[in-house]
Amino acid sequence: MALSKLVLLKYPLRTGSWSARQAHKFCTGIWIGCLSVPALPLFVDRNDVIFDYRVYAYTYKFSSDLWKILLPIFATLTLFLPNIILIVSTVLLLKEAMRVAKGARQPLRWQGITTVLLTVTVHIVSFAPSTVYYIAEPFVEKEPFAPGPFYLKFCRISGAVLDVSVLANFFVYSLTVTSFRSFLKKRFCQTMSFLSSKKICQGN
Fold first, then answer.
1. Is-contact 130 158, C-beta < 8 A?
2. What's the distance, Cα to Cα, between the start and end of the chain in Å?
């Protein structure tokens, strides 16, 4: 979100002139890049799947010796690097927004800035433990019958914290976006009105 806002703010006329074909090519590139996350384990060893009692889900085991080389690289490219890009994009977005507001002699729109900052902060905090785990996992010694706190508690925590990024979006937008709060209030009043009228009809 921060990167897209930065591009729209820095090149407002150029982004609007994109054709449908250009937009489709750009989105296709993003989808192909995201496809590497599930595709690479299938190429290495498609049967290396276990039920992980740490997170109570079927997960990839990464037991092949090849993962000692691939996993740190893979985690750096898919977890660490995107977070760095996100931080840099957010800083550049703040600078560009301040420059545009100063040039137009208008106050900075803190509603949008606050939304971006909170969303980015929650995202980084959510993905930081998983990034550390997958980069460090091949280098941490593990006993077969006593894996230790890194493989048990830290793995479980890093998996659970990922859900915060999804759950927090509702609260971030409720806190920072006035129109979203108005929408929720309107829907809530409509729902309560419907339930009240339904209860009255049933009473009669």
1. yes
2. 51
Q: How far is CA 48 from CA 51, 63, 68, 140, in A?
A: 11, 7, 15, 20
pLDDT digits (tens, 9 = 90+) for 83-109: 888 888 888 878 877 777 777 777 777
pLDDT band at 60 (very low <50, low <70, confident <90, very high): confident
Element (H, E) at 128: helix 110-136
Residue pair 172/121 in contact (Cβ under 8 Å)? The answer is: no
Cα separation values, 77 from 66, 80, 95, 123, Å: 17, 6, 26, 16
CB contact at 8 A, 173 and 111 = no
Distances (CA, A) of 194 to 10, 183, 190: 46, 17, 6
Amino acid letter, 47:
N
Q: SS in 3 state form for 137-171?
A: HHHCCCCCCCCCCHHHHHHHHHHHHHHHHHHHHHH
Record the tokens describing residue 169, joined without a space: 């979006």
pLDDT per residue over 134-155, tens digit each?
Answer: 888 888 877 766 778 888 888 8
The single-letter DSSP state of residue 27 is H
